[in-house]
Amino acid sequence: MKFKLLVLAGAVSLVTACAEEAKTEDKVEVTPAPEPSAAFATYTVDASDNKAYVGVNLTTGETTADLENGSWHIAVRRLDGIALNGGVIAGKSNVTAALASDTEGFYVNGRPVAATFENATPAAYEQLLTQNYDFATIEFSGETMNYAIGKDWYTTSGRTITVDANKHWVVMAGDKYFVVKGNAIAYNPQTHQSTLAFDIAPLTSAGVGSYTTLTHTPAGTSYSIDLNTSSVVETAADAELTIELSKAGYNIALANGAQAYGSLTADELAAVSVDAPMFFRRFDGDRAQNVFTNNAWFEYGVAGGHKVWPNYRTYAVDLDGDKATLNDIFFVQAVNYYHQDTGTSGHITLRVSQNQVQ
Q1: Which of 64, 181, 200, 248 is 20 to 30 A from 213, comparing alpha carbons?
Q2: pLDDT tens figures, 229-288
Q3: Exposed (0-12), middle (13-18) or buried (19+): which is 69, by Cβ within 10 Å?
């Protein structure tokens, strides 16, 4: 089963710092919804669940909670970004997406312009859904994983693999902290097996504890590590790390809600204090990444308070990932985070149109 409980990247710093605050803006004052347009469809998706993504079929507007077997193209979950079917979140398709139009005036030097957000109306940007686009200049891409640790702990040169023992990561698992660093990698070309060694130590108010070196030669393509016992475990539910092995290399993936930050030198690690104010905000999890997360459709708290404001960016979604077939490309805007009738948060309004240029 491909589904993973992950958070999408992109507006990561925004969501990580403000997600709890954003939930306090449960409702906003409702303004009359514009008349429906024949040029595009409007769908309101209940994405208010904090844990489950909701799949949306762009051709019908129907939604599904079954991301493995349901018919959907993109999936939404509150402010956690928008996932693509066939990406690292879930699904078996090959949906790709691109930024078709980045609206002007909403940002200056990367900073939101409050007046633009406050004065923007959905009607002013609906033409972006139906205008002609030159697809030769638009770059589509799928969804990839952005690892908090990933492959940054070693380098390769030809067949030589070198572990950087001076790169340390602090891993937060519940109310406990650990230090993890690579120790060694040995590859056996005869058996095609790799032996990996990691140094693991607890991190407390007293500082870094004693390191334990964990060495393992997995028979398969992954194995799980319990940091509490510095041991390999058979059940992934008991692990904080999953080591992934492939022809592309060796990934350290976080498991069961663990988060990490690094890569710290020995001197930087020595200066770390778990008692520092807001220490937990330094950490991040493994996150799926795509064009929606790299170019968020919203801005948080533009004019103060905890309101979510749309920036009316327009995305092109290719349902089969083949840009040679243009009739299955759909343009998407997310134009409201609040239910158009009740003002309740987490009810995202999508505007969708099918490409007419062949």
Answers
A1: 248
A2: 999 999 888 899 999 999 889 999 999 999 999 999 999 999 999 999 999 999 999 988
A3: exposed
Give me the residue spans of the domains in the chain: 7-143+288-354, 148-285
Encoded tokens for 296: 């968020």
Per residue in 33-80, pLDDT tens? 555 556 899 999 999 998 899 999 999 999 999 999 999 999 999 988
309 torsion bin: left (phi>0), alpha (psi -120 to 50), beta (else): beta
**CA distance linking residue 142 with residue 335, whole number of Å:** 23
Q: How far apart are CA 259 and CA 266, in angstroms?
A: 20
Is 325 in a helix, a strand, or coil?
coil
Name the amino acid, one letter, at 237. A
Q: Which of 234, 230, 237, 238 is nearest to 222 (CA)?
A: 234
pLDDT digits (tens, 9 = 90+) for 93-123: 999 999 999 999 999 999 999 999 999 999 9
* 3 state SS of 294: helix
Tokens at 191, concatenated: 């058996």
Which 3 state secondary structure label does DSSP give 99?
strand
C-beta contacts of 229-235 below 8 A and 24+ residues apart? 230/200
Which pLDDT value is given to residue 354? 96
Q: Using an 8 Å Cβ cutoff, are 141 and 291 in contact?
A: yes
Q: pTM of this prediction?
A: 0.77
Within 10 A of 85 (CB to CB), how many other CB atoms are there?
Answer: 26
